[in-house]
Design goal:
By secondary structure, this protein is an alpha+beta fold. Helices cover 47% and strands 9% of the residues. Strands 1-2-8-5-6 form a five-stranded antiparallel sheet, with no helix packed on it. A three-stranded mixed sheet has the order 3-4-7, with no helix packed on it. α2 packs across α3. The longest helix is centred in the first third of the chain and has 31 residues.
């Protein structure tokens, strides 16, 4: 009896493997990957390797410097400032942007015009770093008439603290006033009932004069033992006026505060009217009249946003303005996948909105929040444009970051490629842990 499959009882030989029309799959895969590997090696691997190699050589590149370049990073004051500023950036910028993105994403589920709100918040992402830097350089302008931040700040300040009426106003030597200490001015002699008091000043710009000020009234004598007089701007445009005389073209200093002082105590006070006239009660007879320093203090000019102490937080604010929309969009996408029945069940069990947000929404969004934080952290480590454009020359050393210091150390008349390469390697070492965390997170997500 013969075995099936071949003649004379012999088993059939194994079938020959069918060869692909395109050849080996390994060769095919290598053919597709080769261009990408060549580009990866030329644009990533080689620059990294050369930077590491160059970081161990001196400025000229001919002498071996060992770890001197790395030591300089932490001993040179300017470079070490950039390291500290980078730490501030890494801690503040991603955290604030992610927190705002989370708040915006949650709020957009409760407002009617959610799409329009998301569009407005995300719109800064369409602006380049260069354009955003120029915008915020103007926003942080010191002059309140030009800088939006100081215009708002000064407006709020002046709402609660009235600004001085006549900054830089002062008497001339021919006027019957003298310095009274602390920025105030006093009359040279005590005032007497029945004699009009002259309080002339100069140095008030036309733009600072009250809009409703009227031509200065001639000094008049007040009755009933009271003290009367006039406070006015003793200056005639175009010349021709006389000192200590209320000429027709001269206007009263409306609102000027006047105090009567006896034995160091204020016994009466008044404010000049629209024509500069004022009246003090009989208690002011024999007193010295004082114009308090509050009349003349400099106007509040706001905050020096781009000064040495605030320049880094100010630039971080511009970064958050740009990237909060990015965080909002990603978090909103994650929020859309959160099971609504869990939220409703928590509310039915008596949880308030804050408890629902803290104990359910945030834990369920944790993977998305980690993605946003890691992405923004990597982006922050490369920040360059905003600092270079927004920080003025006088404060650029105080706002310096590693990427900007890398540029400054590698280019220019005093370039030191050894130090620049060491900074580049340091940036790489700072990015690697963040990338490792991200890769592990991605692998964990894939296994689920």
């Amino acid at each position: 009896m013969t075995q099936a499959g071949g003649p004379a009882g012999r088993p059939s030989p194994p079938a020959a493997p069918r060869k692909s029309a395109t050849g080996s799959r390994t060769v095919l895969a290598a053919g597709f990957l080769l261009p990408a590997l060549v580009l990866l090696g030329a644009l990533v691997v080689y620059p990294i390797g050369y930077s590491v190699h160059r970081s161990f050589f001196d400025q000229s590149g001919s002498g071996f410097a060992g770890f001197d370049n790395y030591r300089e990073i932490f001993t040179d004051e300017a470079i070490f400032t950039s390291v500290k500023n980078n730490a501030i950036w890494v801690v503040l910028a991603p955290t604030v942007a992610t927190a705002l993105g989370l708040i915006f994403a949650v709020l957009t589920e409760r407002i009617r015009w959610a799409t329009a709100f998301k569009l407005v918040v995300f719109m800064p992402m369409a602006i380049s770093m260069l354009a955003a830097g120029i915008i915020f350089r103007l926003v942080y302008e010191q002059d309140p008439d030009r800088g939006l931040a100081n215009a708002v700040w000064v407006g709020v300040h002046d709402t609660f603290n009235e600004s001085s009426a006549f900054p830089r106003a002062r008497p001339l030597p021919v006027h019957p006033l003298k310095p009274g200490g602390g920025g105030s001015f006093v009359t040279e002699t005590p005032v007497t009932a029945g004699e009009p008091v002259l309080l002339p000043l100069v140095g008030v710009p036309p733009g600072r004069m009250p809009s409703d000020a009227r031509p200065a009234a001639a000094p008049a004598v007040a009755g009933d033992g009271r003290i009367g007089g006039t406070a006015w701007l003793d200056f005639t445009r175009g010349g021709g006026g006389k000192p200590n005389v209320t000429d027709p073209a001269e206007r009263g200093l409306k609102g000027l505060a006047i105090e009567a002082v006896k034995d160091g105590k204020v016994v009466a006070s008044a404010r000049a009217g629209a024509d500069g006239s004022f009246t003090l009660p009989a208690a002011a007879d024999g007193a010295v009249l004082r114009l308090p320093a509050d009349n003349f203090r400099e106007p509040y000019d706001g905050v020096s946003w781009l000064g040495p102490s605030l320049v880094t937080p100010a630039i971080i604010g511009s970064y958050v303005w740009m990237w909060a929309g990015f965080a909002m969009v990603l978090i909103a996408a994650g929020l859309a996948s959160v099971p609504r029945e869990l939220l409703e069940a928590a509310r039915v069990d008596g949880a308030n909105e804050w408890q629902v947000f803290r104990r359910i929404t945030v834990p369920l969004l944790a993977p998305v929040l980690v993605v946003v934080l890691i992405t923004l952290t990597i982006n922050v480590l490369k920040i360059f444009d905003l600092v270079y454009i927004i920080a003025p020359g006088s404060a650029q050393d105080d706002a310096n970051v590693l990427a900007l210091q890398l540029y400054q150390s590698s280019f220019g008349p005093a370039a030191d490629l050894g130090v620049g390469s060491a900074i580049a390697v340091l940036l790489l070492l700072l990015v690697i842990p963040v990338m490792v965390i991200n890769i592990r997170r991605i692998r964990k997500e894939v296994r689920r």
